[in-house]
Amino acid sequence: MTKSTRRRKGIVHSVLSFIVTVIMIIRFIRADYYSVFLCALTLALFYIPAFIDRTFRVKLTPELQVIILLFIFSAEILGEIGSFYTFIPWWDTMLHTINGFLMAAIGFAMIDILNNSPRFHISLSPLFVAFVAFCFSMTVGVLWEFFEFGMDFFTLSDMQKDKIVTAISSVKLHPEGINDPVVMRGIDKTVLYFSDGTLPYTINGGYLDIGIYDTMKDLLVNLIGAVVFSVIGYFYIIGRDRGMFATKFIPQMKTREEIEQTKAQIRAERECKRRKRANK
Known about the structure:
Layout: H1 3-29, H2 33-45, H3 48-55, E1 58-59, H4 62-81, H5 84-87, H6 91-116, H7 126-155, E2 163-165, E3 168-170, E4 182-184, E5 189-192, E6 201-204, E7 207-209, H8 212-237, E8 252-253, H9 256-279
Antiparallel strand pairs: 1-8, 2-7, 3-4, 5-6
Helix pairs in contact: 1-2, 1-4, 2-4, 4-6, 6-7, 6-8, 7-8
């Protein structure tokens, strides 16, 4: 990574961190402590790419690091605090598609690094590596949907965004209890009655689906992102994309020289901090 590239990545990190910090201060003044927590979490997540790059012998490309930073900012700050998930219908779909793409890149990199390492005596075919990348991405997507369901179930949040539908089909509605679904179409509104005597609440426009449409849509677009990168990764391995598009997103093992450069940079930063403390 050249100095100019590192500088541009640092500028993106600094600008996003500054914006999040300002939002956190404003939300703290307003006593919106949930948003304060999300901002603090975002600031912590911003350091994951740098932590991986400095701690492990893995090199993250600047393009990948910037995309990860923008993804975190778009999901936590714009999506949750800025309510982009509700104001912009395709926002959640876009992020889940990108997530599928990125997770496939990470899964691909893990196998490709082992494939090319002299310490491991394995040689997997390009098709199998692409398939593993796809499976890794889909597994992460499924685990995230489990997390969303768990949060909604235990904390009554709405991470699985609900959807108004005008038709339902359910065997639960059959008067004889047999396995024959009752289909109801053209639902105009749903009226909710509460056991504590609270006045009825009317849902206009149809019936409120609880999460299933959102979950399946998220998994489908995750699949699209995973397939796209798996195909790109396949052509990367067979040599038709070397040094081009795929390399911008695939983490790679650092060379011995790059490892020493990272260690030297860390030592220099520690020495700088030590001198600052001594001058105080």
